[in-house]
Amino acid sequence: MLSLAEQASNRAYAPYSNYSVGVAILTENGEVFQGANIENISYGATICAERTAIANMRTGGDHRIHTVAVHTPDHGWPCGICLQTIAEFAIDADSTRIVVPSENGFIERSLRELAPYLWSSALVKKK
Asked: What's the pTM?
């Protein structure tokens, strides 16, 4: 998965930050979807690699995230908005895993460990 994330980072469009990010998502069904960050001179229009991969997953017909592998130049973790977006499609916060490379191999954490207080549609009362 980390190798696929690194491959995706090579397709990033990051002319402003020079910070290329690649992601590979493994779904509950065993499918893999990749994404890369795509910057814009208007930074608000930039889309992170995680959200690009999730868009690819949804348009590819899948909807439940098992694992997210992230490759950055400095072994960074997903940002808050990406963690919230991952939560929207996670199997659940405890079993959905986030993996990043490290100097000794990789580090793996659950979505809940990285963001214990994410909004959840389960918290929204239906009328």
From this structure: 0.92
Does the annotation mark 88 as catalytic? no
How far apart (Å, rounded) are the C-alpha atoms in residues 97 and 79?
15
How far is the C-alpha of 121 from the C-alpha of 108, rounded, in Å?
25
Domains of the chain (ranges; CATH) run 2-123 (3.40.140.10)
CB-based contacts of 65, cutoff 8 Å, min separation 6: 25, 26, 27, 28, 54, 57, 86, 89, 90, 91, 96
Of the candidates 50, 88, 103, 113, the residue annotated as catalytic is 50
Question: Alpha-carbon distance 119 to 108, whole Å?
Answer: 22
Per-residue pLDDT of the chain (127 residues; tens, 9 = 90+): 999 999 999 999 999 999 999 999 999 999 999 999 999 999 999 999 999 999 999 999 999 999 999 999 999 999 999 999 999 999 999 999 999 999 999 999 999 999 998 886 654 444 4
